[in-house]
Design a protein that fits this description.
Number of domains of chain B: 1
Number of strands of chain A: 10
Number of helices of chain B: 15
Distance between the termini of chain B: 27 Å
Distance between the termini of chain A: 40 Å
Number of helices of chain A: 10
Largest sheet of chain A: 6 strands, mixed
Radius of gyration of chain B: 22 Å
Strand content of chain A: 15-25%
Largest sheet of chain B: 3 strands, antiparallel
Helix content of chain A: 40-55%
Structural class of chain A: alpha/beta
Structural class of chain B: mainly alpha
CATH topology of the largest domain in chain A: Rossmann fold
Oligomer: heterodimer
Helix content of chain B: over 70%
Order of helices and strands of chain A: EEEHEEHEHHHHEHEHEEHH
CATH architecture of the largest domain in chain A: 3-Layer(aba) Sandwich
Order of helices and strands of chain B: HHHHHEEEEHHHHEHHHHHH
Strand order of the largest sheet of chain B: 2-1-3
Shape of chain B: globular
Shape of chain A: globular
Strand order of the largest sheet of chain A: 6-7-8-3-9-10
Radius of gyration of chain A: 19 Å
Number of domains of chain A: 2
């Protein structure tokens, strides 16, 4: 069974049809790319999938469950986590606390337990610290655990965002332009990290990206979006050689 | 590294508690030695009140990142609810400790209830809009309390929003809340020691809450609302929680305040927006989000006008100059650079480096 199944998805902002008749099927463990020129509606699709916008039409099934129109936090609890195009970290919190905030719904104790420092507080906090450090280790961030998130260099902030998303224990990870603003070396490192996350966590990943080296390097299948509609979809190599796609990116 | 970071945090908090206790001990010794003027002695309980208010407002302004200007309103609720309770039960409950303990609980609960009810609609707003609305709510609370007449006689409670006669009480009736004249005859249960204990309890609640899962969620929402939602943090719940806890602690401050006066009346001076703004000044000058800073700012700014009394007419001028100087020192780029260069840590670090070099 497909992990994510999207059918006839659409949204209108007043008279503007931002996304129309969008469909997509992602199998478990797949690395899927969503590409298209600027303003094609890629991030809008992400926002629809994560409940930031409510779709006007269509439906979204995650693991067979209908999550159409649910709120962001409910969708997160169903198992979709995301990163953002413009990095959104908890900038004043430490690197460790950023990941621990991601663990919020998985390691719980009540506010009163926290205030009164009952034994459960120490136990759960210890487990949280261990789990968070494990995740930071994967992303080679354990040295910086006590740094303020906003003091990290750009590339590491991207990684921390992925670590935080993984902390919510998702089934599907959405990455919105993970390589934006990275130099070729950093991009190469990121590609390795993404592949590692997929293999190590058995994660299914859907990503938006403009960097064709990254897209052709790691994505197995692609959907190309143009003016809110699907231009083409299929295996990466086929799609990237499609004259329609080249025209959409470079013009006639 | 991780362990070190945790220790640093705990150490920091212990310093805060220690500072309060030390201040108490020093003050007690000075009082025993008769070196404290009666004017200053009279300021001690209000001082504790202000410290509690500043710390509790810091929970909303610094930790939750929302500007609230209605804090005096919650203090007012706590003050009146508890003063009413103490006044009503002062014959039945003669043990002043127990009565005051119950009064604190009632004041805190009443203020928390108001904070919760006001928070539901108000926390949909942000920034300046939230500030304006909370300011209005603070004023509304004060003005409503000013028109309440409440009495008790053999037939039970009577309430009126017009005047004391409209309550139609029996001759044996007693007016408990007398509109603009407020509540008179509240037992004098507050003391400096109780104030210090309440400060410590407030600190315990706020510091432990901030350094827990709840505090992390609240600060995550402050730093990035959209991202917090995307990792499954319930925005409304945690915002409301911070606001309610803060209101309830302000209520406790109100209880302390009310039981230090023989006549409690809701006037612009004590429960108006001037008060709310003064608390905000404590928080801002102490450093937004810095709990120890709030305490120091509250103490210094309350004592300063008294210490400057010798300057007579120039007193408020000096007060303003001190405010401006503090702001420059704490917040301007030049001031920050100066502090970094000459901070205790930096100076000690230099010594260490020198030692290592030797």
């Amino acid at each position: 069974m497909a992990l994510l199944e999207v059918k006839e998805l659409g949204i209108s902002f007043g008279g503007l049809r931002a996304v129309d008749d969008f469909h997509m099927t992602i199998e478990p463990g797949e690395l899927y790319g969503l590409i298209g020129p600027n303003g094609a509606g890629k991030t809008t699709v992400f926002n629809l999938l994560t409940g930031v916008y409510k779709p006007t039409d269509g439906y979204i099934l995650l693991d067979g469950e209908n999550i159409t129109g649910k709120r962001t936090i409910e969708i997160n609890q169903h198992g979709i986590a995301r990163t953002f195009q413009n990095i959104r970290l908890f900038s004043e919190l430490s690197v460790l606390d950023n990941v621990k905030a991601g663990l919020h719904n998985h390691y719980t104790y009540s506010t009163l337990t926290g205030i009164l420092r009952l034994p459960k507080y120490y136990k759960v906090e210890k487990e949280m610290n261990e789990r968070a450090m494990e995740l930071l280790k994967v992303f080679d961030l354990e040295e910086e655990a006590s740094y303020k998130a906003s003091n990290l260099p750009y590339g590491k902030q991207r990684k921390l965002e992925i670590a935080r998303a993984l902390a919510t224990n998702p089934k599907l990870l959405l990455l919105d332009e993970p390589a934006a603003g990275m130099n070729p070396n950093e991009t190469q490192e990121l590609m390795n990290t993404i592949r590692f996350v997929r293999d190590e966590f058995h994660m299914t990943i859907l990503l938006i990206e403009h960097d064709m080296r990254l897209v052709s390097g790691i994505c197995e299948r692609l959907t190309v979006l143009n003016f809110g509609q699907i231009l083409t979809e299929g295996e990466t190599s086929e799609v990237l050689n499609d004259p329609k796609v080249i025209t959409a990116y470079l013009g006639e | 590294m991780k362990v070190k970071a945790l220790n640093k945090n705990t150490k920091n908090n212990l310093i805060t508690y220690g500072m309060v206790i030390l201040a108490y001990v020093v003050m007690e010794i000075l009082m025993k030695a008769g070196m404290v003027s009666s004017l200053l002695q009279g300021l001690l309980v209000p001082l504790c009140t202000y410290v509690i208010l500043a710390v509790s407002l810091n929970l909303v302004v610094g930790i939750s990142g929302e500007l609230s200007l209605g804090h005096a309103g919650f203090m007012c609720v706590g003050a009146f609810a508890s003063a009413f309770f103490s006044n009503y039960t002062k014959e039945a409950l003669t043990v002043s400790g127990l009565r005051f303990f119950l009064a604190i609980l009632i004041g805190a609960a009443a203020a928390a209830l108001f904070g919760f009810l006001i928070g539901i609609p108000v926390l949909r707003l942000r920034g300046d809009y939230l500030a304006i609305v909370t300011l209005a709510f603070g004023e509304i609370i004060k003005n409503v309390i000013n028109v309440i007449f409440l009495g008790h006689d053999s037939k039970g409670f009577h309430i009126s929003f017009k005047d004391a006669f409209s309550m139609n009480m029996e001759p044996d009736g007693e007016v408990l809340i007398n509109g603009p004249q407020g509540i008179t005859g509240t037992p004098h249960d507050s003391s400096f020691l109780i104030g210090i204990i309440l400060i410590l309890i407030t600190l315990f609640i706020v510091i432990n809450m901030v350094n827990s899962r709840t505090g992390r969620a609240i600060m995550a929402i402050r730093d990035n609302r959209i991202a917090a939602e995307s990792v499954g943090i319930h925005i409304t719940k945690y915002k409301l929680l911070a606001f309610t806890v803060s209101a309830s602690l302000a209520g406790v401050a109100g209880v302390l305040y009310a039981h230090n006066l023989s006549t409690l009346a809701a006037q612009p001076k004590n429960f108006g927006y001037n008060m709310s703004i003064m608390i905000l000044v404590f928080v801002v000058l102490g450093g937004i989000g810095n709990i120890r800073g709030s305490i120091i700012a509250a103490v210094v700014l309350t004592l300063l006008p008294e210490l400057l009394r010798g300057l007579n007419d120039y007193r408020m001028l000096m007060y303003a100059i001190v405010l401006i100087a503090t702001m420059i020192f704490t917040s301007s780029p030049g001031g920050q650079a100066f502090r970094e260069r000459y901070s205790l840590k930096a100076l000690l670090g230099q010594k260490k480096q020198k030692k290592e070099a030797e």
